[in-house]
Amino acid sequence: MKNLLTLLCLTASSAVFCAEIYVSPKGNDANAGTADSPLKSVQKAVNKAKAGDTVKLLPGIFRENVTVSNKAGTAEKPITICGSRDKSGNYLAILEPVGKELKNWTPAPEIGKDVWKIPLAKRPDLLTMDGRMIAQINKFNMVLPRRKPLPEKITQDMIWKDYLPKTSKRLSGLDLLAVKADIMVSHSYFRDREEALFPVIGYVLCGWYKGNLYLRYANGSEPAKHTITASYGNGITIKNSKYVTLRDLYMRGSTVQIFITDKSSNTVVENNLLMHGSARVKVARGVSDTTVRGNILTCGFIQDEHFKLRSGNDMRGGLLYLIFKYVIGVSTSDDVGIIFIGKNTHVYDNVIFDGLLGIEAGGPGAKVYNNSIRNMSSCGIITGYISSGEFFNNLVMNSGIPLRIHDWRHEKFYRTEYHYNNLFVQAPHAGSYVHIYGAPDKVNGPDKVNYDKNGIYKENPPAPFDPGKVFVYHNTFVGGNNTATIIPVRAYYRKYREQPMPFYIMNNIIKSSWSWGMKFQHALAGNLLYVAKKDLRQANLTDKTVADFNRVSPFEKLDSIWVDGSIKPDKLPDARLKADSVAAECAVDVSKDFVFRGYKVQALPGFKPGYYKGKAPAAGAIQMGDDEKMQHFNMLYERFEKARKYLPAR
Q: pTM to 2 decimals?
């Protein structure tokens, strides 16, 4: 009996030993992979891992690009790649690409003053300076012809429009590197204002051209005073693998930190710190059942304090948006925390801050909830052309457009989105609210047959189809611009001639604006609309479609709606409703089927019968007496505050 127990213990010990493969920057790939004899290469450990194994990264910096290819864990025995953290939660295992530290720079007066150069055979995917990402001009700008003399001011046409050398009005990349240090930028976004270029991008700008990397300092600094690194490729790529978990990793310096592709399934990305690159997590089409939870994601840009709303007296956030979209990117927002197109992607409990896009969602079966999103110069949450799913209980603060429904009616896909119980907080008189963007006038793809030559949907299309519906209900919107875009329904109606409209805007506390297109809106009900002062383009609130089915409150009385509705930058208001709030008992019960203006609406997700007190529900994300919901948003706000402590010191 004693011998049998000994054998069982040895067998169990061996099983535990085999299940953990240790890696250390000080290790050796000839080692056994134990804690006392770790491997050096993460890739080597991943190649050895099988179902149930954990690749454990010991403290240190690992410089390599890792690929998990054709690996198969199981639900009970996933393959796990795990970092190390101390008792305070600090990340100790850092994964970044091999990279190349760039030294021996020389002046480049042939380009301009304070411009430096270094030979580099290939354009880098990413450049960092002292651990922070810096702006790199896209390759199309860099090949445009130079102009003389250099402009005294950068106008709108100089940073966007086409790239064709013969017709483009864009400023070439080499000229952008050479313009005067105090040059100003004007744009229609800014109306009559101008903003200084270089302070917004941290006084440093780079671009690659014909075998040389050029670097411009606009504050008198020089490369020798900094650590500058060029890197290539993604951090961890998961290809055609299933049941792989990535946990407790600190990843930086890659183009995409975690890229999941090629029919991979059941990947879990949890509790990681991810920064830099055009995306922190990217889930490609064909991937299914991905979970992204509990992560901290940030751009890690050199001047991240300017990721904020543009407002009447501060356009730096708007300029940073333009730089990322039209100078770093190529007419696309070249920065996103999480982007997914795969099926059944669940994104929750993440903290995403300081960037352009928070979450870009696509694919059927999406669930996006309990996320804290803050300081996105473009959009907090944006949904794509094949998006369907639920988006709820998120806190989105100080983001240019908190919620954007993008590329509506892009192709033949029944798209249904439910957006509910979210709290959207903007600084006073800054940023927008909700924007629904239809497909471009130049229509391509499977629906082309339904459009006339002007890009307008035909009155009797030969192949009509139902594109789906968007439901925006029981959300609270605080702050925002006096002329904020809400739902541009009129433009949609003129383009698509659709009856009934596919947008159901119900039970929200939200500012009213000219762009609602009241007479075309068939499901605008149960909202508390507050009217901004001096909004010259506000909707006609005497229209029966508004007055009969919604309540209206002057903007100056907004604070009286909540327990403490005072709107302050970077602060979370107490959005619980007062007992006598005008938002009380003005909403529609969405927990059961109902008919509105002749159109039947089925019960909506997220609400069970009896979810409200009194005769009818209250508008907004927080029902009367529901302190737990406010506690939830406070928790999301505190989670953001705590997340910052894990970032490396600047």
A: 0.93
